[in-house]
Amino acid sequence: MKKIILKINGELRSVYVEPEEILLDVLREKLGVKSPKCGCDRGDCGACAVLLNGRSVRSCLVLAIETDGQEIVTVEGISKDGLNKVQNTMLDKNAFQCGFCAPGMIISTTELIEKNPHPNLEEIKEALSGNLCRCTGYLPILESVQEATKEEHHE
Amino acid sequence: MAILNDFKYYKPQEINETLQLLSEFKENAKILAGGTDLIVHLKEDLVKTENVIDIKGITQLNKIDISKDNIFLGSGVTFTEIIESPELKDKLPILWEASKKVASIGIRNRATVVGNICSAVPSLDSAPALLVYDAEIVVQSKNGKRNISIHNWFTGPKQTILKPEELVLGINIPITIHAGVYEKLGRYRGEDLAQAGIGIFVDEIKNYRFAYCAVGPVPKRMKKLEDFLQGKEISDKLLEEAAELIPNEISPISDIRSSKEYRIHMMKVMFKRGLQESVVILKGGRS
Question: ipTM higher than 0.90?
Answer without folding.
Answer: yes
